[in-house]
Amino acid sequence: MFSATLGEIAAVAGRRSVRGALLPSLVFCCLAALVLASGRGSAHGALQAWRHGSWESKVLVVAGFVLALVCVATALGSAQTSLLRLAAGQWGPLGKRTLGRLGRGHHRRLVRRSDDAGAHDRYPPRTRPDDIMPTRLGNALKAAELYPRLRYGIDAALVWPRLHPLLPDTFLIMLGAARTGVTALLGSAFLSGVLAVGGGGYLWAVHASTPLFLLCLWGGGLVAWICYRGALLRAVTYGQHLRVAFDLYQGHLLEALGRPVGDGDDERAQWERLCLFWHRGVLPHHVATADRPAPAPAPAPDPGGAGPGFSPSLSHLAAALLGAAGIVGALTGGG
User: Fold this and answer.
1) Residue 122: DSSP 8-state
2) Within a 10 A sphere around the Cβ of 328, how many other Cβ atoms?
3) Nearest-CA neighbor of 39 among 197, 192, 206, 198?
4) CA distances, 202 to each of 82, 184, 211, 334 (Å)
5) What is the DSSP string of 172-227?
6) How far is CA 129 from the centre of its chain?
7) pLDDT in tens, 265-283
8) Using one digit for the tens of pLDDT, what is the confidence trace for 193-235?
9) pTM (2 decimals)?
């Protein structure tokens, strides 16, 4: 939700674009060019061909590299929100029924075994198992999204677009920097995965040496995992900033709407009436506090995920697939 509504600050947009899209794309293009040169022979041979080539060929090579860099950086910059949703586990019906169910079962077991302090900012409350997401990053963002509802009765999806323009510039810059850190690392993880699979497949197809094939496949997978873990840490920090935004500035929105700031149950009822108005158009004075429906009971834990047995995470499955692909490729395609 927050990933789709958070705006960018114009004063630092260029710096964020460089950090979030251009630098990862530059590293990816350089490594992809190195893989292509290694697959055709050797990097030394490619360097010799460059030195003895005509200036027209050099101009064409440089122009092609710059064009590829621009295309990759543009695609990565425009796909940041989609990558964030993908990494958060917001998949289609087929993904939810297959990998999504497996990931949710794994994280439900982790939540049951963890203490409240350790899971507070990384998972939704254990009383809401239906809100568990298939990935760690999705759970960290979901915990931040649920915080204003549980604390103040605020539907974050409805209130955030109205609260965001009222935030101070200094806080917006800090919030945007935290989100840029998440998207930059996710973009690096995605490009590393593409390089591992695509580069490894290319080296296997051209019968490159086995060490080079394994270095590309397993090395790229390892870098992708490291970048994803870094994005997870940044997502926890980003979620903390979102909580602070509601804690400190939700009263500013009430003042901007011309409504007095209440406290306790009165404030919660006021937020619920406003959210109902924004969601369904029901006027706030038509909703009496006494007529509010009782909160729904916490959903029961999923019986399918309550077993004490081992439940692999999606990271375990990806590592197993890369390991098996490396072994099979080394046995069948090594030069």
Assistant:
1) T
2) 11
3) 206
4) 27, 26, 14, 12
5) HHHHHHHHHHHHHHHHHHHHHHHIIIIIHHHHHHTT--HHHHHHHHHHHHHHHHHH
6) 21
7) 577 888 888 888 887 665 5
8) 999 999 999 888 888 888 888 999 999 999 999 999 999 999 9
9) 0.79
